[in-house]
Design a protein that fits this description.
Layout: H1 2-26, E1 30-37, E2 45-51, E3 55-60, E4 70-73, E5 77-84, E6 98-104, E7 107-113, H2 115-126, E8 135-136
Parallel strand pairs: 5-8
Antiparallel strand pairs: 1-2, 1-7, 2-3, 3-4, 5-6, 6-7
Pfam families: DUF2550 (PF10739)
Keywords: Membrane, Transmembrane, Transmembrane helix
Transmembrane segments: 6-23
Length: 137
């Protein structure tokens, strides 16, 4: 009886996680995006990035809270480098993605996204008002 209860709880947790992933990735204005804090971060974390007025909200796919873990403000954003991700860096999860080194004030991190998401991110940056300071390398 205890084993059945544990299986039911595990099944419900898996269903809730699947619902969260579908909700975050299928929402309007959301793209799949990986984030890694710099320097010497804990490694890549998979999440969804949502565009808002002047900022980008990054929400992890696996987590309890529905609020963004990182908020990237467009004003003062500096992209210092761009590189292609090697095949072993994501353990085969994603291929053909580009990583951008982003600095925003005191925080520095890398964002990794596919071609379509990268095109949207660059368009979002370029659509900033003329008074915004942007430095894109």
């Amino acid at each position: 009886m205890v084993v059945l209860d544990v299986l039911i709880v595990v099944g419900l947790l898996v269903a809730l996680l699947a619902f969260r992933v579908l909700f975050l990735t299928r929402s309007r204005g959301s793209v799949l995006c990986c984030l890694r804090p710099l320097p010497g971060g804990r490694g890549w974390r998979v999440g969804a990035a949502r565009y808002a007025d002047g900022h980008l909200n990054w929400i992890p796919l696996i987590g309890l809270l529905p609020r963004p873990r990182h908020v990237i403000v467009r004003r003062g954003l500096v992209i210092s480098s761009r590189r292609r991700i090697g095949p072993g860096e994501f353990y085969g999860f994603l291929e053909g993605v580009t990583a951008l080194e982003v600095r925003n004030g005191d925080s520095a991190f890398e964002l990794a996204m596919g071609y379509r998401a990268l095109t949207g991110f660059v368009a979002w940056l370029e659509s900033a008002p003329p008074s915004a300071y942007l430095d894109v390398a």
